Amino acid sequence: xxxxxxxxxxxxxxxxxxxxxxxxxxxxxxxxxxxxxxxxxxxxxxxxxxxxxxxxxxxxxxxxxxxxxxxxxxxxxxxxxxxxxxxxxxxxxxxxxxxxxxxxxxxxxxxxxxxxxxxxxxxxxxxxx
Amino acid sequence: xxxxxxxxxxxxxxxxxxxxxxxxxxxxxxxxxxxxxxxxxxxxxxxxxxxxxxxxxxxxxxxxxxxxxxxxxxxxxxxxxxxxxxxxxxxxxxxxxxxxxxxxxxxxxxxxxxxxxxxxxxxxxxxxxxxxxxxxxxxxxxxxxxxxxxxxxxxxxxxxxxxxxxxxxxxxxxxxxxxxxxxxxxxxxxxxxxxxxxxxxxxxxxxxxxxxxxxxxxxxxxxxxxxxxxxxxxxxxxxxxxxxxxxxxxxxxxxxxxxxxxxxxxxxxxxxxxxxxxxxxx
Lengths: 129, 282
Known about the structure:
By secondary structure, chain A is mainly alpha-helical. Chain A has five helices and two strands.
């Protein structure tokens, strides 16, 4: 980084403002997760067409405001899926394809999503950081 | 009357002092933000920081305990009851006569005080206040959520006795004490969302869930609990009713054996309070 001579007078207000700005911008590091064969753009469209938003809040998907399932904001940061499974790409794909096969009691139904589409949807969900 | 010149100088000095305080505050914030202060529990605090924290803690406790009325503490049954609570809950961190603290406590900073010393230096109302409320960022938890009011005072009653006991006396007294564990706090009848918010913090719920109204880590271990009142299901398996929510909070694994959510030993009354709070989140 280049250093410049300070051009603003270092009044307390400026220092405080700068500090608060730095604190506010102190984001967490979220690693990027890739899903083999998944395409996030196609995934977003698939999320829309399967009506996932009827049960989930999903950023970037019009009308996705359902509260039957958990909100999927910041999904890439979620540690677990459905409270039982580590949030890893291959498990997520299986979960999207057939939730009851992994958690028999779950209220989430099997929506008949194909393997390829599940990969796209997973890729989109990992874009939610 | 002060001359105009003197008033002008005084005003300048006051403004200068104010500016210095502001600059010091900003410098403190910058030091914290920059990460230069060593937060390792192997290294000590700097002497001024240690003194400031120590004095601040002491005065804060003194101030808050000032209005607390101390019940009679010399009842022998109360002392024995307190020994049970002390032996089961305090010794693990503070140690006891001839008993070392457990490994988990040895490296804590600040070091958990030896309670024989504390009992000599602090008034009973202060011991009660600290035991009941805990101390932020000191590793001392609030026992109000694990111990009944009576047992909090019983613990203080025993602490008053502690400095007078050698190893032999401690063991002999312990032999006379019932095994029956220290009592959980009594519950209130009516569920109360404000108590629920406190209970959610006191059972470490915000260690895994983001919960509106609680300042805590930005975590996604469990689902965020925003707008919980509008959620149709609990944990994806139970319809979101008060009864189900209390059941889930108190015994999650009886509903979903493989859920990552543990049984935190939440009392029925605390679970009702928590549920009342969660049901207020829209």
